[in-house]
Design a protein that fits this description.
- InterPro entries: LysR-type_TF_proteobact-type, LysR_HTH_N, LysR_subst-bd, WH-like_DNA-bd_sf, WH_DNA-bd_sf.
- Pfam families: HTH_1, LysR_substrate.
- The chain is α/β, with parallel strands linked by helices and 300 residues long.
- It is built from 10 helices and 15 strands.
- Strands 7, 8, 11, 12, 13 and 14 form a 6-stranded mixed sheet that branches. Strands 4-3-5-15-6 form a 5-stranded mixed sheet. A two-stranded antiparallel sheet has the order 1-2.
- Helix 1 packs across helix 2, helix 1 packs across helix 3 and helix 1 packs across helix 4.
- The longest helix is centred in the N-terminal third of the chain and has 21 residues.
Length: 300
């Protein structure tokens, strides 16, 4: 069967983005071009790959099956073609990273501008989401996560600060009205601004001091999705709504400005920094190799 590689890539773009217009934006093509490519592919395969309505585009069972096998296969094709990058003076191509919002905000800004300046032939695409993903199936070259979220068959490279802390904070006005907690257990009597993952899991707040670990599950007037909506919780804390718990680096600018005041600082728990991870069972694309070397050489 003589199927065009471009048509397969068009199918992949639409499937991953969830629509033709969205796929066009992600791939830099046109919605009409993607639509024509998918129609051509469906005609060649003899099956419908998408159910289309005026409002939505959804994979058929046949399309879902093709997507599951095609993504990793095309990644391997790209990796094989990328071998020629080793003969360039400078690597070129697209590097796709899947990262949590915290890494996009707190880790990558110190790396990306210098990396792109050093490698003008590389285009960086960053997808920010909280759940751990199969980077190959998601069409990405590598990801950034913390060690407890890494799978054993992944190669991990330290990136960003090696020690981080979770910090609790509230506005001075809130603390003047409601008092300043002296022990994590005191939080149960305060308005706490909580977060939960997209999966629905809501992690407790964890504190540690002199070997004593205290986990609390406080309540409050606001619950946000961790990552994308965390700034709403910060804004509410600044406005005096309650106490927020987040990465120290995320809150530091507000400590420095006085908009927020540290709460229970002697109890703030430290944890190891994030890792860049990628599968060890495939050729490493030249843009990713350049990024790995840049991080290892101190670009972070």
């Amino acid at each position: 069967m003589n199927v065009e590689l471009g048509d397969l890539n068009a199918f992949l773009a639409v499937a991953r983005a969830g629509g033709f217009r969205e796929g066009a934006r992600a791939s830099g093509g046109s919605a009409s071009g993607l639509s024509e490519a998918v129609r051509r592919l469906e005609a060649q395969l003899g099956v419908r790959l998408f159910n289309r309505t005026t409002r939505s585009v959804a994979l058929t069972d046949a399309g879902a099956g093709l997507l599951a096998r095609l993504g990793p296969a095309l990644n391997e094709v790209e990796a094989a073609l990328d071998v020629v990058n080793g003969f360039r003076d400078q690597p070129a191509g697209t590097l796709r990273l899947n990262v949590p919002v915290s890494a996009a905000r707190l880790v990558l800004p110190a790396i990306v501008p210098q990396f792109l300046a050093a490698y003008p032939g590389i285009r960086l695409e960053v997808i920010a989401e909280e759940g751990f993903v199969d980077v190959l199936a998601a069409g990405c070259d590598a990801g950034i996560r913390y060690d407890e979220r890494l799978e054993q068959d992944m190669i991990a490279v330290a990136i960003g600060p090696r020690v981080q802390r979770f910090a609790a904070a509230a506005s001075p006005a809130y603390l003047d009205r409601h008092g300043r907690p002296e022990h994590p257990g005191d939080l149960l009597g305060h308005a706490c601004l909580r977060g939960r993952f997209a999966s629905g899991a809501m992690p407790p707040w964890e504190f540690e001091r002199d070997g004593e670990v205290v986990r609390v599950d406080p309540t409050g007037p606001l619950l946000v999705t961790l990552g994308g909506a965390a700034d709403l919780a910060v804004d509410a804390a600044i406005a005096g709504t309650g106490i927020v718990c987040l990465f120290e680096d995320w809150l530091r600018p507000y400590f420095e400005s006085g908009a927020l005041e540290p709460v229970l600082e002697p109890w703030w728990q430290s944890f190891s920094g994030p890792f860049l991870y990628y599968p060890g069972r495939r050729l490493v694309p030249a843009p990713l190799r350049a990024f790995i070397d840049f991080v290892k050489d101190g670009g972070a």
